[in-house]
Structure formats: C-alpha cells, structure tokens
UniProtKB/TrEMBL annotation:
Pfam families: Abhydrolase_6. This is Pimeloyl-ACP methyl ester carboxylesterase. Residues 3-222 form the AB hydrolase-1 domain. Gene3D superfamilies: alpha/beta hydrolase. InterPro entries: AB_hydrolase_1, AB_hydrolase_fold, Sec-Metab_Biosynth_Hydrolase. It comes from Arthrobacter ginsengisoli.
Length: 234
C-alpha cells in the first residue's frame, strides 16, 4: 500500500521518522511529505496557501500507480481532506491524527500570530495544556529547534471543496488530546467543529491518549495505530 504522510504545522517529512518503522516492516511504501514553504527556515513562503499544499498532495497521488491511504496530522488533516475531495476515487482511506476534515469555507487557524508571510511556532504558553501532554522539556527543545515557520496563507485561507464523493471515502480518526467519545458526542450535538466529519459515511475511531504531537510523544504507538487503520483499507 502507498501511504502518504502529511505533517502538521511547522514540520517537514522528517517528523514522521519514528512513526514509519511498523509501516515499512509490514511491506508498505511510505511517502512522507515536505510541503511547499517548509523546505527550510529560509525558504520563501509568500504566495503559498492552503491550495498549494492540497495540490502538492494531489500531485503525489497522481504520481503513484495505485490507490493510496492519506494520513494527516493536525493542520494536515484539512490538507488531506482537500486532496480527498480532489481525488475521491484514488483514496482508499483518510487517517486523521489528532485532526479531522475541514469543510468548505473553513480555515485551519487564523488566530495564530503571523509575522509577514509566515507563522512561526508560538511560545508554549499560547497552547492549551492538553496540547502539551507528554511533551517534556527535552521534546519541546527538540521540536523548537526543528520547527519551520508555516506559510501564513495555509493557516488563514478558506478550504474550497467541490465533490461530495469525498464523504464516501472511509476515515479513521486517531484521537489524542480528547477521547473519541467526546468527538462522537459533539457530532450528535451538531457542533460545527465536527460538522464535516459527521458527514463522512464510514468513520473508525482510535484513542491514543497523549498531547497534540503523538509522532514525538508516542511514535511507536502511532505507527501501530496507522498500520491497523491501513489494514482496514485493503
């Protein structure tokens, strides 16, 4: 199986390094992405928006011969959902890691403080306690040292979707900060945050209790959870 791994904000392809061993050991082909503007701290970020990142994922799908599984962490969940919308017939499953699908007209996070064309990794004080669970001082130092400013347009642009066949693509949500039962209750209550997720016809939920960056705090368990979800896509 071809598995495309889309990182969340401030991260490049290497953020998946400790997650992929179980996938490779099972014989899968992994394609961790470094998205436009995330190539280095000095990379140009002007003019790069949400669509640029969606298009980069779509181009990777189109370069492969077989159907794929998409994995998106955090803001990468919105990106893979845009790719599902663009290629609903090529995606066997979308796996959302502490994230979910972003509906038409939504934005990933326009509250993040920007500096010109980019959004640097904010101070830890700006994150909720739930975000930082298990992210100890050593991991925080590692993360900050490797963090790359996010293109501002990716955080602030509106999602644009066109093909309702996206709701036929099975999804798995790997819930970290908050238990999956809370998400299910929110869907039942009609909460707008999970409105798009509530429209997906087949959703599996997996609980992996930790903070917002399980690829750093529980990488082996995240790899196994992704592997299990991929197994349901064959």
């Amino acid at each position: 199986m071809d598995i495309i791994l889309v990182p969340g904000f401030w991260l490049d392809a290497s953020s998946w390094d400790e997650v992929t061993p179980p996938l490779l050991a099972a014989g899968h082909r992994v394609h961790p992405l470094t998205l436009p503007g995330l190539e280095s701290a000095g990379a140009p970020r002007a003019g790069i928006g949400l669509r640029s990142h969606v298009d980069a994922v779509v181009a990777t799908i189109d370069a492969l011969d077989a159907p794929v599984v998409l994995v998106g962490h955090s803001g990468g969940g919105a990106i893979i959902h845009g790719a599902v919308d663009a290629r609903p017939d090529r995606v066997l499953r979308a796996i959302y890691v502490d994230s979910g699908p972003l509906g038409d007209g939504g934005v990933i996070n326009d509250d993040l403080p920007a500096d010109g064309d980019e959004v640097p990794l904010p101070p830890w004080e700006l994150f909720d306690d739930e975000d930082l669970t298990d992210l100890d001082d050593a991991l925080r130092d590692m993360f900050r040292a490797r963090a790359i400013p996010q293109p501002r347009g990716v955080a602030q642009d509106q999602q644009r979707l066109h093909d309702e066949r996206r709701y036929n693509v099975p999804a798995t949500v790997i819930a970290c900060e908050f238990p999956s039962a809370m998400l299910i209750d929110m869907i039942g209550a009609g909460h707008p945050y999970v409105a798009e997720l509530g429209r997906v016809r087949e959703v599996d939920y997996v609980d992996l209790p930790t903070g917002h960056w399980p690829q750093f705090t529980r990488p082996a368990e995240l790899g196994e959870a992704i592997l299990a979800a991929v197994g349901r896509s064959s």
